[in-house]
Amino acid sequence: MRPSDFDYDLPEALVAQQPVSPRDASRLLLLPRWAGPPEHRRFRELPGLLAPGDLLVFNDTRVIPARLEGVKETGGRCELLLCEPLPPDPAAPGARFRAMGQASKPIRAGQRLAFGPLAAVVEAAEGEGFFVVRFDRDGEPFAAALERAGHVPLPPYIRRPDGPADRERYQTVFARVPGSAAAPTAGLHFTPELLARLDERGVVRASVTLHVGPGTFLPVREERVEAHRMHEEPYQVPEATAAAFAACRARGGRVVAVGSTAVRTLESAFAGGGLRAGPGRTSLFVLPGYEWKAVDAMVTNLHLPHSTLLMLVCALGGRERVLAAYREAVREGYRFYSYGDAMLLA
Q: Domains in the chain, start-ordered, CATH in brackets?
């Protein structure tokens, strides 16, 4: 397969620059997984499209103000995107992260960086624009300084600066575990009221945690898609989620993943007929032809051409059917990407 096999024409005007309000007012493109034409719904209709006993699995990661703009000790400008929190070093206190970095001149190991109230040192250069950085504080003092110094890491196709409203809106209402460099955007459409209606419907809810990093959003640069390698991302599956998965399978319900990160976590943690609880790391790259083990259906946003996210959706719904549905969404004026509309493959 080639990246061009996952192409469609998208007018730039359909790339959402602002979210809709309320969250569940977004449109929902319903595509039956096996057969049938797409249907045009609203996201607030989701409870009626799921069955009692289905299991919705969310990613409860919390986005941090992960984009930092500052200067090197030489005075040159630099920018970091904090991609993954790393374990502390007992010998050198301070919050540690794997980060993507760029600067007017190359960033090197040992350099000191300043971001307003935060200072950092580059512990290692890992190549391909990745670095390990350690900040001058950790815990609550670090979190408070990051809130002041950092920017909401809006994706580059949102062609405006982040604003105060993005602090709340580029975050799911169930976000719990800080550490993500991007929102699990399929979850942005849910409201507390919609979650309550899902509960009333008898839809069961569970969560996993995957801190969204470059493994999710880096482009495919290989001529053959199969040659692309995903960067690893850490995940955590709670015992309660593994138990909810087993109960769902036992009663014949569907496992409905909310977003590609929930999909990749569930598929990576599946072993021996069930979910393996606990921590893990995944570099899973899902392409058409993938043998599904854990996921029966998914809620997702409308993704970039040629992206690994679109390839994953095509693996679940069929490449031709998904691309045909995308072309219809373009004709119908759907809003695309992170702040855009949603799709249900079920």
A: 3-63+168-345 (3.40.1780.10), 67-149 (2.40.10.240)
